[in-house]
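Lab channel / #folding
Pinned by the channel admin:
"Please post every new chain as: sequence first, then the structure tokens as a reply. Keep commentary short and put observations after the output so the thread stays searchable."

First post following the new format, from NK:
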Amino acid sequence: MSEMKKKSVGRPKTLDRQKIIDIAFTEYWIHGIHNVPLTTIAQLAEVSRPGIYKEFGGEDDLKAEVLKKYIKVSAEPVHNNYDNYKKYPNHLMNHLDALIRDGNKYLTNNPNYTKFRPKNAIGCLLQSSTISKYKLGPATKKIINDFEKIRLKQFEKYIKNAQKDGVFSKDIDSSFYAKYIYTQFSVIQTLRLNGTSKANIKSIVNTALKPLMQNEKFI
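Reply from TO:
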């Protein structure tokens, strides 16, 4: 007599990896990457916390995947345009302005830049994560640090081109001021999150970046 097969008690729910990343992407950008418990992500995705741990290996790895998506759909389309100063001579100004005003139509023609931005999101997910990256795990820190190197190279390249174009002073050190500009992005993001008015932020940025300029106004 053949052995009786054990009757299954329903089919286990299939975990949708991309759905979890997409949900976390939205929640992290709106509320902050440190402010959304994994329980909330699990509830919104209708899966268990252990299921997320099994799929991603941990919360740090999920956050790293979210930042990878952000860099691909939002950061890279913007930073790629730094490679063409001749076509985009105002790119840095537009980039800073976009962080202040949550977008700038002159920044990129890539539709992903606005397509994936959640309603009520403030500024830049990558920048808000960078501000307090000391709270993040190693996988997420690595994503931020690796892209930071790319950004600094792009800013330095832009400064050198702007110096040749007579927009930036020829006396400034491009490497130092690339780091200085990078810091201004964190300043803007912090002020945005603290509720500082956009007009005041713009005045602060213009004052901070005045040493770079041949002209009086930056943005």
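NK: The radius of gyration is 21 Å.
TO: also worth noting, Residues 83 and 154 are 7 Å apart (CA to CA).
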